[in-house]
Amino acid sequence: MSIIIVLICIIILILLITWGKLNAFLAFLVISVLAGLLLQLPAEKIMTAVQRGIGDTLGSLVSIICLGAMLGKLVAESGAAQKIATVLMNAFGARYLQWALMITGFIIGIPLFYGVGFVLMVPLIFSVVYQYKLPAVYIGLPMLAALSVTHGFLPPHPSPASLVLQFNANMGVTLLYGLIIAIPAIIIAGPLFSKTIKNISAEPLEMFRPQAMNKTQLPGTANSFLTSLLPVFLLTATTVLNYFFSANGSYKGVLTLISEPGLIMLVSVLIAAFTLGIANGKTMKSVMTIYGDAVKDVGMILLIIAGSGALKQVLTDSGVSQQIASALQTWPVHPLILGWCMAGIIRICVGSATVAGLTTAGLIAPLLAKSTVDANLMVLSIGAGSLLFSHVNDAGFWMFKEYFNLSIKDTIKTWSVMETIVAVTGLAGVLLLSSIIG
C-alpha cells in the first residue's frame, strides 16, 4: 500500500507542475503534506519533517550552489569561459570535445561530491555550448554521467564509503572494481546514449552565457584554467592530505576544516575576484555586482531543491523506505540482484541515492553474512541500484532541469534515462565481475 501511495503522490506532483502550472517549490510543499497525511505520519510531525528536509538539503548545498554560481558567472563575464572553450576546441576539435569533457568529469568526480562537481562543471559546459553553438544536452550529459557514476559507485563518496564499512569490505578493492565497472557505464550512458538525444532543444541559463570579447581582452590560458578549476585542485589536494595524515590527531581538525567544500569554494571565489576581476581590469564593486546577480539567478533553483528535500524527508520519516526494503527481503533472487533491486526501488520512491544505499545496507547485511557473495561487489551493486531512474523527488533531477532549462518531459527523456542506463550497466558489470572472480 505504501508504494501505491508514493506513486500517487508523485503522479499528482507531476500533474500540479505540468498541467496545473503550479510553481515547483509550492507543488513540493503541497505534496509533502499530502504524502505525510496519506502515509499516516503523525500530524504534528509533518511540518517538522518538511522543515527538517528543507534545512538538511539546503544546509549542505546552499553555500556550494551560491558560491559555485558566483564563480561560474565571473568565469563567463571575465572571458575565461571563452578562453577555456577556445583552447579545448583547438586541442580536441568538435568531434572529440564531448569525450574530453566526460573524462574531465570522471577525474574530478572521484574526489568531489556530486553537487560540487555539477556546479563547477556546468559553466564550462555552457561556455562550449554557447561559443560553438553545440547542443547543450548532447555535450553536457556525458560529463554529468561521469559525475553521477563516481557519486554512486566509488569511495570516498558518502554512500559507497559507508557501505564498505558496514560490509567489512576493502576500500581499495571496492575502488578498483568500481573503476572497472564505471568506465563502460559512463561510455554507454554518456557519449553513446547522447547520440539519441541530439534533437532535444535546451536553452541553458542566461547567467552562464559568456559575452563575446576581443581576444586581447581575454585572460591568459593558465589564469583561466587554474582559476576556474581551483576548487577541484584544492579538494583533490586536501583529500590526498587527509589520506596521509588521517591518523595524526594534531592535524585532523585543521585538515577537516580546510577540506570542507564550502570553505574551498569561498577561498576560490575570493581568489577569482582578484585573478579574473581586479587583475583583469575590473573594480571590486563590479565583481561584487556580478556575484550578487549570480545569487539572484539561482534563487529559484535553491527553492526547488529545498522542496524536493522536504518530500524526501517526509517519505523517510514515514518509514516507507524500511517497509519497501523489508518486503523485498524475501525475494528468491541472487543477493547481488536483490541488493540492486532494493536500492533501486527505494531510490525511485524516496529520491535520495544515499538514503537508498544506506537503507538497503542495513537490511541486506544479515543476508550477506550468510552468503559467499563478495562484499566489495555488493557495495557496487547497491551503489548502482541507488542511481536508478532519478525523477521528480530527486534534487539532482531538478538541478539538471533548471540549469539546462528543460521541460519535465525532456528531463525524464535525458537525465532519468541516463541514470537508469548507468544503474543497469553497473549491475551488468557487477554480475560479470562476480562470474570472473568466482
Question: Which helices and strands, and how do they pair?
Answer:
Layout: H1 2-18, H2 24-38, H3 43-78, H4 80-109, H5 114-132, H6 136-153, H7 158-166, H8 171-194, H9 221-228, H10 230-245, H11 249-258, H12 261-277, H13 284-297, H14 299-317, H15 320-328, H16 335-350, H17 353-369, H18 375-385, H19 395-404, H20 408-437
Describe this structure in words.
It is a single chain. The protein has 438 residues and is mainly alpha-helical. It has one domain (2-206, 215-437). The chain contains 20 helices and no strands. It has helices at residues 2-18, 24-38, 43-78, 80-109, 114-132, 136-153, 158-166, 171-194, 221-228, 230-245, 249-258, 261-277, 284-297, 299-317, 320-328, 335-350, 353-369, 375-385, 395-404, 408-437. Helix 10 runs antiparallel to helix 11. The chain is globular, with a radius of gyration of 22 Å. The model has no long low-confidence stretch (mean pLDDT 86). This is Gluconate transporter. InterPro entries: Glcn_transporter.
The secondary structure category is mainly alpha
Give the domain tally.
1
Overall body shape: globular
Strands, count: 0
Order of helices and strands: HHHHHHHHHHHHHHHHHHHH
Characterize this entry briefly.
By secondary structure, the chain is mainly alpha-helical. 79% of the residues lie in helices and 0% in strands.
